[in-house]
Amino acid sequence: MGIRIQTSESIRNVAYGLAIPQLILSSIALSGCTSSSAGIPNIFVAKYAGSSLRFSYMGICNDVPGNGTVCASTIGASAVALSVALSTSESLMQETKDLQKSAGILLPVISWITFALGMTLLVLLRRFGRINLIMIIRVIFWISSACSFTAAWAVTYTVAALSTATAGNPQTSIIEGSAIVGLQWATFACGLLVAFLVHVVTTDPKTAAKPVKKPVKQQGTTDAPPKAAQSSTTEPKQPAPKDASASKPAAPKEAAASK
Q: What is 38-86 written as a DSSP string?
């Protein structure tokens, strides 16, 4: 039992360690093209071959003469406002927003949320020993892995299909972003490994929750049976039976010796 608990602890620590890069990688992939910070504009789903306009899940970037690289979030923003901010035409911006929807932002967001929720429940399971959370935790991690795989597949093959479909027009032809493809597949690999490790850890309910320390018995000692409680009242002692020979009358003396 002690070896099993130690092995479970090691696997759990590996899962915790892999959760950190998984959350970081997925967060970087979701934040692509949302700001002009170093490296963020280069994380894009696709870009137009004839211009510097590129888009990711939640943002669009463009190189504006005199202003450098300008990025804007597309959440709640209209095509008119984005065209003014990024110095491009409204029709091209509307087309970019339509292409952005085909990338499917919903799946990466669901994968990130379910993974973070699963890690939180795993910590609570370890902290409070709620055995009834085991099946819920497994399902949440496998859902996160499925969404992460679908998001990686979509950003790889959907954009590749769009690139093939628009290859005839040099102004609107699509180039796939290699950075975000690598981030999505790395996120899926880390998430899948964490889901597998969590499944292994939670297979045995005794090692899934916090182990309870039991006192160790020393070798060579045996548990003595409990002593019977002595009665507060003692039974009166009965007198010992008298000798049977003493109770009989003395035997008559033998007749006097014959004269």
A: TTGGG--SEEETTSS-EE-SSEEEEEETTTEEEEEE-TT--HHHHHHHH
**CA-to-CA dists, residue 251 to 7, 125, 217, 244, angstroms:** 90, 93, 69, 14
CATH match for 2-208 among 1.10.10.10, 1.20.140.150, 3.30.70.1350, 3.40.50.300 = 1.20.140.150
C-alpha distances in Å from residue 104, one per residue of 38, 116, 233: 25, 20, 86
Other CB atoms within a 10 A radius of the CB of residue 168 amount to: 8
Task: Identify residue 109 by its one-letter amino acid code.
Answer: V
Q: How many Å from the N-terminal Cα to the C-terminal Cα in the chain?
A: 100
Tell which residue, 47, 67, 16, has the closest CA to residue 180.
47
One-letter amino acid at 212 equals V
Distance between CA atoms of residues 108 and 88, nearest Å:
28
* Tens-digit pLDDT profile for residues 173-211: 788 888 999 999 999 999 999 999 998 888 765 545 554
pLDDT band, residue 7 (cuts 50/70/90)? low
Q: Give the domain ranges of the chain.
A: 2-208
Count of Cβ atoms closer than 10 Å to residue 27 Cβ: 13
Pairing of strands 68-73, 46-48: unpaired
DSSP letter assigned to residue 59: E
Residue 77 Cα distances to 18, 222, 246, angstroms: 36, 77, 124
**Taken in order 133, 134, 140, 143, is the CA torsion positive or negative?**
negative
Which tens digits make up the pLDDT trace of 82-122? Answer: 888 888 888 888 888 888 887 778 889 999 999 999 999 88
